[in-house]
Design goal:
four-stranded parallel beta sheet; TIM Barrel; Transcriptional Co-activator pc4, Chain A; four-stranded antiparallel beta sheet
Length: 491
């Protein structure tokens, strides 16, 4: 029996046909495809697919993986890895700022060489299709790109870590992501070290590549976390090209917001989404002011502003940040800010300007006298449990019990959140489960936190939570119960 597997993205569809060996066994309901008879790679804008057999597929996987890592890191593959096991049927080269030429040599004469130019978005859809195939345990289990360390002589030591480590950070393939997982998820000694990881993808999240990142984020949020609402929080200025002038980069921020806004509306993964634009401690006043103005100008995509970069760096510029937040509130912009996350980030003068407090755990831990004020102002703490272990802020999760207990007692709302699930391998259901199994909160407290999250969500326009809306729909669809009939029998 012929087995067919298909891996589809908006700009690419990878189709495999093959057979299962006589000795192949599987415990799942899907048959194991262990031998390939034909491969088709359909690319948007091309009338005919690229076709071939196992040799073509092996070469395609290796070429795409190698090129993607070189493209994203800036370290081109002058490296001569052991090529004895590959045919070299597929080559990829950059032919423009946003153009990549895929060349396929014929497996047999007299076929002609095929050359196709892909945009960056099209290329990353090809990367994703291959990623899906490699991750499929029921398809070619022997197919696995070899992950080899880069020789020291090819690395320019002066390059920042963000540039050198970017390929593994975004996961060029599932296997590459797995290989790097231990490095990126290990705990850091300080918040600054932790935040450095978040800079890894800034330089590769451009207008061309952002749709790829957003698609994967939305898919993961819907499939793995079952989210109904999502706020995308980032600094648009840091996604613009560094070689441009400050004024040119400020101009480009609008296109970044538009790309993120359009890419986040994925029909097959229906989630209510909006953006929170982050000012940043690394940026000058003029850029942060432009970010506030942009948030006001684009309410169709933006629901609020934030301040990123570590709350321990606010002190010297506190007057400036207060002015920016006051300006934002005057424009009717929702505000949140990373504050009271660490003992060095306690700045009470900024509290009156925030509608939500990013983290804020030091208030119940070190400054519980502020809890009545927070409750009176109706502010909500955004608590990310696992983050505090990774930043070294807390030594163990049980310290959070004090945070939750004191906040509940004072009437302060808490929303349970998570930081960058894709980079740190921590998703929201895991945070819930961790808090419950460590007896930090119970199910009633968890429900209270979930209700608080929707009450304080900047772009959730409904009066009810999703499950309440669904319950009302189900109740309206239930058939009416027939009236009870009573029969009186006379003998």
């Amino acid at each position: 029996m012929t087995i067919q597997r298909q891996y589809s993205l908006p700009n690419c569809k990878l189709v495999l046909q093959g057979l299962s060996s006589e000795t192949a066994t599987t415990t799942s309901g899907r048959p194991l495809l262990s031998m390939v008879t034909n491969v088709e790679c359909h690319l948007a804008g091309q009338k005919m697919p690229l076709t071939g057999g196992r040799a073509f597929l092996d070469s395609l996987v290796l070429a795409v993986s190698d090129y993607a890592q070189g493209y994203l890191s800036g370290i081109r593959h002058l490296i001569h890895r052991d090529r004895r096991q590959q045919t070299g049927l597929v080559q990829i080269e950059q032919v423009g700022d946003n153009l990549h030429r895929l060349t396929v040599q014929p497996e047999a004469e007299p076929a002609e060489v095929q050359a196709i130019d892909l945009t960056t978005v099209q290329f990353f859809d090809l990367v994703e299709a291959i990623d899906q195939m490699v991750a499929d345990a029921q398809t070619l289990p022997d197919l696995a790109p070899k992950l080899e360390p880069l020789s020291r002589r090819y690395v320019v030591s002066q390059e920042p870590i963000a540039k050198r480590a970017a390929p593994a950070a975004i996961g060029v393939t599932g296997l590459a992501a797995a290989a790097a997982l231990l490095f990126y998820t290990r705990p850091r000694n300080t918040l600054d070290e932790y935040l450095e990881l978040h800079t890894l993808v800034e330089k590769v999240q451009t207008t061309e590549t952002l749709p790829y990142f957003i698609f994967r984020l939305m898919r993961g949020a819907y499939v793995f976390e079952n989210l109904a609402y999502l706020e995308l929080r980032y600094t648009p200025y840091l996604r613009t090209p560094e070689h441009l002038s400050q004024s040119e980069r400020i101009e480009l921020m609008q296109s970044i917001v538009e790309v993120v806004g359009k890419a986040s509306h994925v029909g097959e993964y229906p989630i209510v989404t909006s953006q929170i634009l982050c000012m940043h401690t690394r940026l000058p006043y003029e850029v942060n002011r432009a970010i506030v103005d942009l948030a006001a100008q684009m309410p169709q995509y933006v629901c609020g502003i934030d301040l990123a970069g570590g709350d321990n760096h606010y002190g010297a510029r506190m007057d400036e940040y207060i002015e920016l937040y006051s300006y934002a509130r005057s424009l009717g912009i929702n505000t949140t800010g990373h504050l009271y996350e660490t003992p060095d980030g306690c700045h009470p003068e900024l509290l009156p300007y925030l509608m939500r407090i990013g983290h804020g755990i030091q208030i119940p831990l070190k400054h519980p006298e502020l809890l009545p004020q927070v409750a009176k102002q109706g502010q909500c703490l955004e608590v990310c449990p696992t983050t505090y272990l990774k930043t070294g802020t807390l030594q163990n999760l049980h310290q959070l019990k004090v945070v939750f207990d004191r906040c509940f007692e004072a009437g302060v709302d808490i929303a349970i959140c998570t930081d960058n699930a894709g980079l740190h391998n921590v998703r929201l259901p895991f945070e819930y489960e961790t808090l419950l199994t460590h007896d930090i909160i119970g199910f009633r407290e968890l429900q209270a936190c979930q209700e608080a999250a929707f009450r304080h969500a900047f772009a959730w326009k409904h009066q009810q939570r999703p499950e309440s809306i669904l319950s009302n729909i189900l109740r309206s669809e239930q058939p009416e119960q027939p009236e009870r009939l009573e029969l009186n029998v006379v003998r």
